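Bench notes, afternoon.
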Amino acid sequence: MITVKFIGGAKRSFLTEQLQIDKSDISIQELMDLLLELKPDNTPELDTKNILIAINGTDSSAMEGPSTMIKNNDLVSIIPVIHGGSSKKLTFQVLKKQIQVIEIIGQKTINVNFLDKIRKKYPKIQLQAISSNFIVNNYHLKKIITLSLESEKNNILLSNKLETDMLMRFALTNQISNAITHVGIKPKTNFILIAVGNKKLLNLLYKELLPLLVNLFSKNNDLFLKKYFKITKKILDSVYSSNPLEDILIEKAAILL
């Protein structure tokens, strides 16, 4: 027997806070397929690309992702990631923290000093810049940010700062210098700016940087990431998921410790 607990907006999709599933030893992917079959008609769709799935309180991304096996008496929590924004801004909440994501067009004059100046001007916002080449889409981005925030909450960051932890997880390395060299800001290269702070300050930051922004995730990085991280078709085919590349990257990021 598995207990599935629906949190926030997920309750509207199933018209209940909890379901008892008379199964065990099934994967998360198999459970999700079953839940979508059980969902009542005429209720809001469950956005499976914008949810966190925890087993007994542990995010499945830190385990084996969609392949994680659920055992008898496990509690599975379905937690929607609250988000919104325009094509030039993505905002969402994780662990009650407000996050804003924007993409800045690469220029000759923009380098690591650009980030230092913004940090100095907005000391109450946690900021990190990630090369746009290393992010697949918002699903990948949200999952990595969530891993870092959960690590911060549990005092198991890869470094002493949340910002550095995020950089290392996108780079899939536990070497800070390596992460900065390959995934940090480079002149003429677009980058994603991740900001964690209160809504008022995030809005001020957005308005200031608006002239430098481009639409988020407009570039397809799949081929680059497969080649860079040596992810073959054989590896992708072995993953039972609708987002195999993203889930492989997330799983690798989760086990860097």
